[in-house]
From TrEMBL:
Residues 440-520 form the Ubiquitin/SUMO-activating enzyme ubiquitin-like domain. Gene3D superfamilies: Ubiquitin activating enzymes (Uba3). Chain: B, domain 2, Ubiquitin-activating enzyme E1, inactive adenylation domain, subdomain 1, Ubiquitin-like 2 activating enzyme e1b. Chain: B, domain 3. Keywords: ATP-binding, Metal-binding, Nucleotide-binding, Nucleus, Transferase, Ubl conjugation pathway, Zinc. It comes from Pyrocoelia pectoralis. Residues 596-609 have a biased composition (Acidic residues). Residues 541-554 have a biased composition (Polar residues). InterPro entries: ThiF/MoeB/HesA, ThiF_NAD_FAD-bd, UAE_UbL_dom, Ub-E1_IAD_1, Ub_act_enz_dom_a_sf, Uba2, Ubiquitin-activating_enz, UBQ-activ_enz_E1_Cys_AS. This is SUMO-activating enzyme subunit. Residues 537-609 are annotated as: Disordered. Belongs to the ubiquitin-activating E1 family.
Length: 609
C-alpha cells in the first residue's frame, strides 16, 4: 500500500516508486535541509545524506533542522536526527564526510535512483557530476545566490552535464594593484588576506604583499635603488619573533616609504602616507574604544588606534596557533583571522586614503558572501523534489532547467523554465565520448607538482590523477603515494613534455579519462600562468540544438552573451511568456533565457586561496 504521505496528485507509476526510491542528498546546508524536509514529507523513505561540515551559529536562521544546542555538531548527523524526530519510519543514513573522499566511488553512487546536489562550491559539484556520469545515475543540481536560483537536471546521454559549458572565471585583480596602488576597499581586503597567508598561511608566491618592483608603471624609478629584502615575509617575521611593532612598521611604514620612491606611480594618484606603530597608537584623542563582541564592534568602522591594537593582539594569538600547526587557513568565520584582516585592511585603506570598512562589511567582501535567503532556498528545494518526481517517472523531456529570478517592477513572473532540456556539448571535456582539452603551460618553467596541483586538481578538478606521456610510456604522475615523487620538482620539459606532447590523464575515482594536448605558453606579466582551452569556438551550439538565430547563446563566451543579450531581465521574462502564450500557438518558437547568475562562486570578486 502506498503511504498517505505520497502526494495523491502524482501519477500512480510515480507514487509506487517513491516509498522505495533510494535518494542521495549531497550537502545539508540551506538547500539541503529544505530538500530533506520535502523528501520526508512526500513519502520518500530511503534517504542518505552527506555533509562534511559542522553547524555554525550563522546557519540557524535558515537551516531549520538545526537548533542552538546543535552548534559544533555534524550537519549530516543532526539533519538525520531531526528528520527522524518528524518521521521515525524513514530509513536515513548520514555521513559526516566529504563526497570527494575515496570511499564514495562509482559503486556507492550506483546504489541510488537519483542524486540531489545541495552544495555550495564548484569543485564538489564538478566531482558529483563526474561520479553520476560514471555511475549513469540521474543528478539534480541546484544553487541559489540571493534572490536568484536554478535547478538543472543532468543525465548521461540525455542532457548536458554540469561541465558542458565553460563557467566564467573568478574575478581577480592584478598583483601590482594589490601590492602598489590600491584604489578600492576590496584591494586592501585582498592585500590583508594575502598578508595573513604570508605570515601564517600556506606559502603562495602569488600572494606577495611587499612592493612590486617590477610594476611596469614604475619603470625606471628603481634602477638605482637596489633590491628589497629578499628573505620571505614568513622567514623575516620568524626572525623578529612576530614582534608586532616591527611587523607593523615594516608593512605600514617602511614598505610604504619604499613605494613612495616609485615616483611614477604617484604622478596621477594621491601618494600614500606611511604610518608607524607609534603614530597609529597615538591616533585619536576621543574616548578610547575597545574591541567587544557587541554590535558596535561589528558594524562600526574601527579607529586607527583600535586597528593597531587588534593587529598586535591577533598577531600574538595567531602566532600561538601556528606554533603547533604547519600553517593556518583563513576562514571568514574565524574571529581572530577576521579581526586581523579587518585591522590590516583598514590601516592600509587609511594610508591610501580609501574608505575604511566595518568588520561586517569586510567579512562579507572577504568571504564573498551574498546573503543566503531562506525563501529562495525553500523555492529551489521545492522544485528539486518536483523534478525528482519527473525523473523517477522517467519523464526526462519534462525536466528542463528552471530559473528563479527576483521579481521586477515589470513582471510578476519569477520562475522561468527552459523550453527544452539542453543536449550535451559534443566537445565537453568531461562528458564527451573522448574527452580532450588543450593546456597552455610553460613547459620549461612549470614543475610536475605544479601541473598536478594547479592544472589537474584545481582547474580540471581531478582528485587523484595518474598521468602518462603518450607514445613514450613515461609515467609522469601516479596516484599511488611516493611512486612518482622523484618527478615532482622536475620541469615538464625534463620529462620530455614539450609543445605538442599528448598526456593521458586518468582519475580512477571519477572513472574519468582525459587526453591533454600540451602547448608551450609563456604568460604575460600579471596574466594567469597557464590556460585551459576546451575549444571554446567549438563550444558554440550546433543547429541540432534547435535554437534559432538571435536566441541568447549560453555557450558563447561571456562577452558574446553580453552582446546578444542587451535586454532587461523583465523583457526576457515578458518575451518568454509572450512566446509561450498558448493562445498565440507559438509553441514551436524556441527562445532561451539567459540564465541568472549561477551560484555563489560565480559572483566572487576575490581570488580565494
Ligand atoms: N565536498 C563536500 N562534501 C560534502 N558536503 C559538502 C561538500 N562541500 C560543501 N558541502 C556542504 O554543502 C552545504 C552547502 O550549504 P550552504 O550553501 O547553505 O552553505 P553553508 O556553509 O551552510 O552556509 P553559508 O556558506 O551561507 O555560511 C554545506 O553544508 C557544506 O558543508
Ligand atoms: Zn558535459
Amino acid at each position: 500500500m502506498i503511504p498517505s504521505a505520497v502526494p495523491s496528485v502524482l501519477k500512480d507509476s510515480v507514487r509506487e516508486v517513491i516509498p522505495t526510491a533510494k535518494i542521495l542528498v549531497v550537502g545539508a546546508g540551506g538547500i539541503g535541509c529544505e530538500v530533506l524536509k520535502n523528501l520526508a514529507l512526500s513519502g520518500f523513505a530511503d534517504i542518505e545524506i552527506i555533509d562534511l561540515d559542522t553547524i555554525d551559529v550563522s546557519n540557524l536562521n535558515r537551516q531549520f533542522l538545526f537548533r542552538k544546542e546543535h552548534v559544533g555538531k555534524s550537519k549530516a548527523n543532526v539533519a538525520k536526527e531531526s528528520i527522524l524526530s518528524y518521521n521515525p519510519d524513514i530509513s536515513i543514513k548520514a555521513y559526516h564526510d566529504s563526497i570527494t573522499s575515496q570511499e564514495y566511488g562509482v559503486n556507492f553512487f550506483k546504489r541510488f535512483n537519483v542524486v540531489l546536489n545541495a552544495l555550495d562550491n564548484r569543485a564538489a559539484r564538478n566531482h558529483v557530476n563526474r561520479m553520476c556520469l560514471a555511475a549513469d545515475i540521474p543528478l539534480i543540481e541546484s544553487g541559489t545566490a540571493g534572490y536568484s536560483g536554478q535547478v538543472q537536471f543532468i543525465k548521461k546521454g540525455v542532457t548536458q552535464c554540469y561541465e558542458c559549458q565553460p563557467k566564467p572565471p573568478q574575478k581577480s585583480f592584478p598583483g601590482c594593484t594589490i601590492r602598489n596602488t590600491p584604489s578600492e576597499p576590496v584591494h586592501c581586503i585582498v592585500w590583508a588576506k594575502h598578508l595573513f597567508n604570508q605570515l601564517f598561511g600556506e606559502d603562495d608566491p602569488d600572494q606577495d604583499v611587499s612592493p612590486d618592483t617590477a610594476d611596469p608603471e614604475a619603470a625606471g624609478d628603481l634602477t638605482a635603488m637596489g633590491n628589497l629584502l629578499r628573505t620571505s615575509t614568513r622567514q623575516w617575521a620568524q626572525q623578529v619573533d612576530y614582534n608586532h611593532v616591527k611587523l607593523f612598521n615594516k608593512f605600514f611604514h617602511d614598505d610604504i616609504d619604499y613605494l613612495l620612491l616609485m615616483e611614477n606611480l604617484w604622478k596621477t594618484r594621491k601618494p600614500p602616507e606611511p604610518i608607524s606603530w607609534e603614530m597609529a597608537s597615538a591616533c585619536g584623542t576621543e574616548k578610547r574604544k575597545v574591541l567587544t563582541d557587541d554590535v558596535s564592534s561589528e558594524m562600526d568602522v574601527w579607529p586607527i588606534y583600535l586597528c593597531a591594537e587588534v593587529f598586535s593582539t591577533t598577531i600574538a594569538t595567531l602566532k600561538k596557533e601556528l606554533s603547533n600547526k604547519e600553517f593556518l587557513i583563513w576562514d571568514k568565520d574565524d574571529k581572530v583571522g577576521l579581526n586581523f584582516v579587518t585591522a590590516c585592511a583598514n590601516i592600509r585603506a587609511h594610508i591610501f586614503s580609501i574608505a575604511k570598512k566595518s568588520r561586517w562589511d569586510i567579512k562579507s567582501i572577504a568571504g564573498n558572501i551574498i546573503p543566503a535567503i531562506a525563501t529562495t532556498n525553500a523555492m529551489i528545494a521545492g522544485l528539486v523534489v518536483l523534478i525528482a518526481f519527473r525523473v523517477l517517472a522517467g519523464d526526462y523531456e519534462e525536466c528542463q532547467s528552471i530559473y528563479l529570478r527576483q521579481k521586477s517592477v515589470h513582471s510578476n513572473i519569477i520562475l522561468a523554465p527552459d523550453f527544452f532540456t539542453e543536449k550535451a556539448n559534443p566537445n565537453c571535456y568531461v562528458c564527451a565520448e573522448q574527452p580532450y582539452v588543450s593546456a597552455y603551460v610553460n613547459v620549461e618553467d612549470m614543475t610536475v607538482k605544479e601541473f598536478e596541483n594547479e592544472v589537474l586538481k584545481k582547474t580540471l578538478n581531478m582528485i587523484a590523477p595518474d598521468v602518462i606521456l603518450d607514445g613514450k610510456g613515461v609515467f609522469v604522475i601516479s596516484s599511488e603515494e611516493g611512486e612518482t615523487e622523484a618527478n615532482n620538482d622536475k620541469k615538464l620539459s625534463q620529462l620530455g613534455i614539450v609543445d605538442g606532447s599528448i598526456l593521458k590523464a586518468d582519475d580512477f575515482l571519477q572513472n574519468y579519462n582525459l587526453t591533454i594536448g600540451i602547448n608551450n605558453y609563456i604568460a604575460e606579466k600579471d596574466k594567469p600562468l597557464f590556460k585551459i582551452d576546451a575549444k571554446s569556438e567549438e563550444l558554440k551550439p550546433s543547429q541540432q540544438n534547435g535554437k534559432e538565430n538571435g536566441s541568447v547563446d549560453e555557450n558563447a563566451s561571456e562577452e558574446n552573451v553580453m552582446e546578444v543579450d542587451d535586454k532587461t531581465e523583465a523583457e526576457h521574462l515578458e518575451e518568454y511568456f509572450d512566446d509561450n502564450d498558448p493562445q498565440e500557438g507559438t509553441s514551436t518558437k524556441k527562445r532561451k533565457l539567459n540564465p541568472p547568475d549561477d551560484e555563489d562562486e560565480d559572483l566572487i570578486m576575490l581570488d580565494d586561496p
